[in-house]
Amino acid sequence: MTRGGRTLTTALLCAALALPPVAAATATRDLRGLDGLVRAYDFILEGRFDQVEAELRRACGPAPREACEVLAATAIWWRIQLDPHSRAFDPEFTAAVERAIASTEAWAAREPGNAEAWFYMGGAYAVRVQWRVLRDEKLSAARDGKRILEALEQAVELDPSLDDAYFAMGMYKYYADVAPAAARMMRFLFLLPGGDKKVGLEQMLRARARGRLLQGEADYQLSIVYLWYEEQTARALHLLEGLHDHYPGNPVFLAQVARIQDAYQHDITASIATWRSLLAAAREQRSNAPVLAEAQSRLELARLLDGLHQTDHAIEHLEAVVALKPNAPFGALPLAHLRLGEARDRLGARAEAIDAYRTAQALANAPDVHEIRASAAARLRRAPDARRAEAYRLSLQGWRRLEQNDVAGAAAALERSLELDRDDPVARYRIGRVLEARKEDGPALAQFETTIRHAKRCPAPILGNAYLEAARLHERATRREQAISYYRIASTLFGAAAETKSAATRALARLRAAESRTPRR
């Protein structure tokens, strides 16, 4: 979920993204077969695409044929959203959505006074406009956006009780107001009305509260609004977590949670935990796209673990992706080889890295959305610094030995690492932990202080631990004020692990309680 490239198309047409392709919240006499359509739509959001067709056959009897055609196109669209870089489903989607548009337009022409016909017509165009936005078909998407707005306004004029339609119109008003200047110019060229951010959000929330089918789709779209524009990250996460609870088989929602934790909250450890949850669901067949979810989770875990100087564990995930040979997500296999090469280079295994880069180049997809060929070529031309790579490898080796309670082996590896790269703050933190294990508090504190001085080069979770350990050593030495200062930093440090913050917060509470019990002189 990036904000880059938000053109007029995105700004004006995001209203269409939330339009449910089925009936409104308050069932009037013209809305037929609503319960069956609700069940089918739930299967779509759950990612159980193999069962959608059967559900639609059951629904379409009392439900209009046109409504089921819109839902059939919507199901394919959600399959595309699982793997948006892949175009494998584009031909099938195009045929389905064109069929839905043609049938709903014919229905509205036959029965111009039927609000339901106009509602489904807007829904059909809404499904297509999302795909056109994704494929960067700006002008075609803008034309679809105009048809959506016209159809929905007609539907609401005929039947104001169609609460779901208010959501799409609210989205339009919201995005039309927040759109950049270039977007406003295109809005003028297409003779579309202006927007009102406040009214738009009110209409979206009204429709979400009253809509029968809208909750899932509305929550997903509102999570984007809260994240990008309202700057309410916690609220966006709450919506996505609720979607995951309701539709646990769809990997999209949990993946979005993990990305927000990483990119917006800079909470790497929380993101790792979320990706591990998704990986477990895939491995245990609780995901309705298990291969995609496993490959996606492992690639992201490898990236995050490498950022935490745990490249050996990153390699384990990348090798698992290579063994899996996934067809999805798009480009996963060559990307795994590229990152495997980078990880090997970081550990000083240049020959193995070269093999991985060449394999990545050979497997790179067209289009090369991850720029694998160019990245691999650049890394083949430029070998990493061998001295720093050896220092990095020894630092990691020393840390693993400490985890195995081999304190002597850990010390030897980390001392050699620091001889090669004296300014590495992670190695300094690690040898500080070794010295703590030896009960050498003074030298350990000096190492943690060195890590803190090199904070800009240190991953936030490790820096947070350095503050926490230093605070504990200051407290042990009865330097209470310095301990409190470091505990406070550890408890609030942006990007520090939640368990680090909790431990520091508990320590502060303990020190305050002890102070309150100490009689004043």
Please tell me the total number of domains.
4
The number of E-state strands comes to 0
Shape: elongated
Main sheet characteristics: none
Q: Indicate the structural class.
A: mainly alpha
Poorly predicted runs are 2-30
Order of helices and strands: HHHHHHHHHHHHHHHHHHHHHHHHHH
Mean pLDDT: 89
* Strand content bin: under 5%
Helical segment count:
26
Oligomer: single chain
Measured between the Cα atoms of the first and last residue, the distance is 59 Å
User: Which percent bin holds the helix content?
Assistant: over 70%
Q: Report Rg.
A: 28 Å
List keywords for this structure.
mainly alpha; 4 domains; 521 residues; Serine Threonine Protein Phosphatase 5, Tetratricopeptide repeat; elongated; 26 helices
Task: Describe the model.
It is a single chain. The protein has 26 helices and no strands. The protein is mostly helical. It is elongated, with a radius of gyration of 28 Å. It has helices at residues 8-17, 34-46, 52-59, 65-82, 90-110, 115-134, 138-158, 163-178, 181-189, 197-210, 214-228, 233-246, 251-263, 268-283, 290-307, 311-324, 332-346, 350-363, 372-381, 386-403, 407-420, 425-437, 441-453, 460-476, 480-492, 498-517. The chain folds into four domains: 8-211, no CATH class; 254-382, Alpha Horseshoe (Serine Threonine Protein Phosphatase 5, Tetratricopeptide repeat); 385-450, Tetratricopeptide repeat domain (Serine Threonine Protein Phosphatase 5, Tetratricopeptide repeat); 459-521.
